[in-house]
Amino acid sequence: MSQTIVIDPVTRIEGHSKITIQLDDRGEVVDAQFHVTQFRGFERITQGRPVHEMPALMARICGICPVSHLIASAKAVDDIMAVEPTPTGADLRRVINLGQIVQSNALSFFHLSSPDLLFGFDGDPAQRNILGVAAANPQLARDGIGLRKWGQQIIEWMGGKRIHPEGIVPGGVAFRLTEEVRDRILAGVPDALAATERAIAWYKSDMLRWEEEATTLGNFRSAFMALVDRQGNVDHYGGWIKVIDADGHALAEPIDPKHFNDYIGEAVEPWSYLKSTFWKPMGYPDGIYRVGPLARLNVAEKTGTPRADEELEKFRWRVGRVASSSFHYHYARLIDTLHAIEKIELLLRGPEITGPHTRSTAGINRNEGIGVSEAPRGTLMHHYKVDDDGLVEWVNLVIATGHNNMAMNRAVLQVARHYVKGDRLEESMLNRVESVIRCYDPCLSCSTHALGQMAIKIDLLAPDGRVLSQLAR
Amino acid sequence: MTFTDGAGVLVLGVGNSLRADDGVGEAVVERLGGVLPPGIADLRAVYQLTPELAADLAEVALVVVVDAAAGVPPGEVVVREPDAASLGEPFSHSVDPARLAAMARALYGASPRMLLVGIGPASLEPGEGLSPVVAAAVDVAADTIAAIIRER
After folding, report:
1. Domain contains B119
2. A148 and B1 in contact by Cβ < 8 A?
3. Which structural domain, as residue segments, surrounds residue B90?
4. Å from B151 to nearest chain A CA?
5. CB contact under 8 A, A145 and B2
6. Cβ neighbours of B40 (radius 10 Å)
7. Chain A positions in Cβ-Cβ contact with residue B90 (cut-off 8 Å)
8. pTM for this model (two decimals)
9. Looking at the domain assignment, is residue B150 inside a domain?
């Protein structure tokens, strides 16, 4: 008799979702689906608003990554105004964006995922949280707290507020950076670098414990997508979209982000509010690709900063030039963080960073605009159409978690096939199914369709749809 | 956001001002900014208590957490100490006051005195602005906290 297992809600991720696992008559897993179950609708509620309001409105999509939406939105409005931000304005945006990368990556690794790595996937669920980490490995917890705090301070000091900052505006940034704030941020760089390098050393020393998980948690061939700069190195703010296949070969020449619609399609499934994007030349669902820290390292030639490049070399020696296991998102996230800290320091030491010209101004010069940047979880695209008065007529948001949707579904299926046996649900299985989702650090609020903390429920269904077993948190 | 910088005292106004009276914590710290002399306390509005605040607790002697308090009559102001016996469910994004104090102790060896100031809400529905009965309690709460800080 076939059955279905439902995990509802999935925990320690951003937002609400559930997972369904379908078993056949022999109790073997035949299918699995990751459902995003809440709807928000920012693409509709912003219609009719003046486009200059869009960055501030879009920041409200998410309390974790408001800066990412501010950046992509401001860039889309730049495009509508047909202006480039001043060099100082662009560099200030880069610094705030990298502060966002640091604090969000720290949340994902230290707060959400390190409990599994520290206590094991079969460990006591009561321990597997940041408070358990604080008790068992205080240095690791202090490093996570310190990194997140420093990233949030950058956002607050430069953007005006820690959450939903207002400093990023169409044309650049609203505030000039003072030398005092610059120096305050720079003073935190040595501690931030040390904390990240301690975490990398700890992770590497413990990696062999997780060989089975690295093999089974979302380990499959797929394409990868990320932004790169002129040299082909990691670029979190701008540059070109680069897509490679599972062997590292470019699937196209570097793409101008304004033409992303020529290459990226979106599919909708009836069982989820989260859209699935796909590489158009391969169609849906064959055009599966991944974004985020792992994709950034796989796609780029180098990171472009010395300490991160040294770690990248070791990363590639350990897991290959194109890492295929989603488990390596954790390792990649730490190197991504190291690069972000180094880059923040480089940018803040630039001679013009405290200069007065932080913003270009213009009116409505186009009826359509696209802004693309790298959010912590991957490539983020905002696409707006406005009327001649600058009122928003149409919005499409293509979000990192949407890019990863097909990959997450495939990963859940792979984990379920490996760990789910028969019709009994066990905690260790539940945690491994959740943990493969956490590798991607999905933000369901950012996918415009969810709110609040993630919870998990697994239903085990009979062939006729009856719920045979259920695990929930 | 930080309204003033100060040493020795941290006041955290907790809540979401887009959920009606849940914004009372922010309103109280704003009011305190006009009541307290500069430099007396670090006044902050936060959406929720997060683990990162443990590091800030380590730098002060007194922490006052101001929040809407479900179960308290609308507009009533209550002051109490956190109940370590009723720790909430651990979660990685937010923590309850007692757990935050425990983290500060475990990670930084800090044990600042902590007081909770709760204001009973009339509405927690989506929307900006406090209901009249809660708005009237903002001054009471701010004066109460100012007195606590003065007398410490």
Report:
1. yes
2. no
3. 2-139
4. 31
5. no
6. 18
7. 126, 129-132
8. 0.88
9. no
